[in-house]
Amino acid sequence: MAEPARSIRQQLGYLGRGWLILAASGWLAFVATVLMPGLPAWLMVGSFVLTCGALLAMILGLRCPRCRTRLTQVGLMAAILPSQTSTQLHCPGCGANLDQSA
What is the DSSP string of 13-75? Predict the structure, then answer.
């Protein structure tokens, strides 16, 4: 049985959760290298770059699939609090309904 197509809001939430998990993992690794001085320095630098890269990708990468307008705030709200994302119903760029399938 085929799975129903995800809406734009669900797709943004899925991508937002992925970037948040990656950023949190990098941050935890960075904090671990600070608290445990025996860990290699490359791990500290790599985890910091991973955290910053994930946050930057989340800010720049959560876009409307139709017009490519940045929808970072909608994506973060869909990732963190899916029930609270109904305040913005349409894409500010193209006016697409965010609850329709992508």
Answer: HHHHHHHHHHHHHHHHHHHHHHH-TTS-HHHHHHHHHHHHHHHHHHHHH-B-TTT--B-HHHH
